Amino acid sequence: MTESAPPAHARASHRFETPRLILRSTEVDDAEALTLVYGDPLNNPLGFVIDDKRSVAEHRASIEKQILSTARGENAWLVVILKPDQVGVSYKESDLQQLHVHDGFFIGCTGFNSFRIGPDSATLTSDIGAVIHHLFRKRAMALETLQAVIEYGFSVLGVTVFTLETNARNVPFRALMERLGVAVEQITEGGFGQEGDAVNYQFGMDEWKVAKQNLIASNKWYL
Fold this sequence. Notes:
N-acetyltransferase domain-containing protein, acyltransferase activity, transferring groups other than amino-acyl groups, GNAT_dom, N-acetyltransferase, alpha+beta, Acyl_CoA_acyltransferase, globular, 26% strand, 9-stranded mixed β-sheet
């Protein structure tokens, strides 16, 4: 019995760039920087980041599994790398040494948490999100990251619908989505159980085209 071919959106790895950032698939050598970012309580002030207590070894094992699930097209977790030429422009190199990786500085995580192919194979839905190191907040890094992920999803991977979910208490992320201007909030009471209500977003290409035009018009388009 032969194995079925991976879906069209599957890749062995992913990599794309913005003016300031490299977004690429997680590599095993990223484990130490990933542990620092996830384990820093300033990056998780509301306690919504999972796996914040994992060790370097545990993250390394998780990355090895991610490499396989990415190739199967189940998901596509990505890391956010600040390009080396940005150091000295807006940031002190001394602040970044612990975050150094081979192609820049590891400042966050993003990507496609899941892919769901519709029953008619005509729709491809993906859930996305982003976590940015606290040193790089209020610099539109998260907005630049999500813009790039959405563009890549629509234009390269063939995503037809994007979804996002957060806790209603996550005011910074809700503000980020308002700046992105792409979808109306849908509240699910008790969506996170005892942790509170869930806020959901969903949008397709048509909504994204309008949001993109508005971002360009307001000088908030960073690609």
